[in-house]
Amino acid sequence: MIYAYAKITVTNPEALVEYRDVAGAALAKHGGKVESAAGDFTVLDGAPEMPNVAALLSFPDKDAAIAWANDPELADVHALRRSAGASDILLLG
Question: Of 13, 29, 46, 88, which residue is most buried, by most CB within 10 angstroms?
Answer without folding.
Answer: 29
